[in-house]
Specification:
The chain is built from 13 helices and eleven strands. It is an alpha/beta fold. The chain folds into two domains: 2-107, Nucleotidyltransferase, domain 5 (2-Layer Sandwich); 122-282, Exopolyphosphatase. Domain 2 (Nucleotidyltransferase, domain 5, 2-Layer Sandwich). The chain has a six-stranded mixed sheet, sandwiched between helices. A five-stranded mixed sheet has the order 3-2-1-4-5, with helices on both faces. Helix 5 crosses helix 13, helix 8 crosses helix 12 and helix 10 runs antiparallel to helix 12 (261-275). The two termini are 22 Å apart.
């Protein structure tokens, strides 16, 4: 069965076309377009019309591509930006005209989908899955019970809240870090015995690409890459030492992500420090694959 999934996130719209058979998926194509749908939402509480238009154009193209490729089902879901937007109905109306019935995920379901995809892709057990998005960050772990949590911190959201200088000042970095700690401090203790952390989302895959100085992004080289905490610190120091325009030229970093990468990297580094973890395994399998496995592959954890 050929299936398409479209993830409508705060920072990017992502597309997966795959074949699903007996609880397994074979990926045919995976794409991402940065549209910054959640631009300004942390300040206004509303989607702005330019961001909506950019996103709808990309979704329309993805839907057309899926139809041309013979997808039997197109499943679309939205996360933090649409969860938070007071005027989300405007966006939903646009999608209904494309024939899409949008599923607005709560934080727990978003975390659950990410866990399914990452665990399947990493082929590891006893892992904590960390998903850093544009508007929120999720943690998921299956031990004696299944813990799935979503926190109101994301790369776009924290950039808009805290970063004014270019490059950001040490004081701004400290403010972001203390805010993250404040949000997570009452939840992090339950995860400290976990041996392996698997990371998903654009911040983490970008750091893997930067670490390898990839001029052309490679899913194969990024998936399974081990990012050491000391390497993340080194890369963050590099990001903090240059202007936005200079960051756009760093090999491995998408220019459209250069403005939010410092906040995203700070989230990752702070969480690893709070967990006393020395490294994180990067996964290209994430909530796109997880949503397909759950919805169409009969994979339930």
């Amino acid at each position: 069965m050929k299936v398409c999934a479209i993830d409508i996130g705060t920072n990017s719209i992502r597309y997966l076309l795959c074949d699903v058979n007996d609880g397994n998926i074979q990926k045919i194509q995976k794409e991402v377009e940065i549209t910054r749908l959640g631009e300004g939402i942390s300040k206004t509480g509303k989607l702005n019309s330019n961001a909506v238009q950019r996103s709808i154009e990309v979704i329309e193209r993805f839907v057309r591509k899926a139809q041309e490729e013979g997808a039997e089902f197109i499943y679309s879901f939205a996360t933090s930006a649409i969860r938070d937007a007071k005027n989300k109905e405007v966006f939903i109306d646009h999608l209904s005209r494309l024939g899409l019935d949008l599923d607005i995920l709560d934080g727990e379901t978003e975390s659950f989908f990410g866990y399914i995809g990452a665990v399947k892709g990493a082929n590891k057990e006893n892992v904590l899955v960390l998903d850093i998005g544009g508007g929120s960050t999720e943690l998921a772990y299956k031990g004696r019970e299944f813990v799935k949590e979503s926190f109101d911190i994301g790369a776009v959201k924290l950039t808009e809240q805290f970063i004014k200088a270019d490059p950001p000042t040490p004081e701004e970095y400290d403010e972001i870090r203390l805010h993250i700690i404040d949000i997570l401090v009452n939840s992090i203790e339950k995860y400290k015995e976990i041996k392996n952390v698997v990371g998903i989302g654009g911040t983490i895959t970008s750091l893997a690409a930067v670490s390898q100085q990839l001029e052309v992004y490679s899913q194969e080289k990024v998936h399974g890459y081990e990012l050491k905490k000391e390497e993340i610190k080194r890369i963050l120091d590099k990001f903090m030492s240059v202007t936005l325009e200079e960051r756009k030229n760093i090999p491995g970093l998408q220019p459209q992500r250069a403005d939010i990468i410092i906040a995203g990297t700070t989230i990752l580094l702070t969480i690893l420090e709070m967990l006393n973890q020395k490294e994180i395994t990067v996964s290209e399998w994430d909530n796109l694959e997880g949503s397909v496995l759950y919805k169409f592959g009969n994979v339930h954890l």
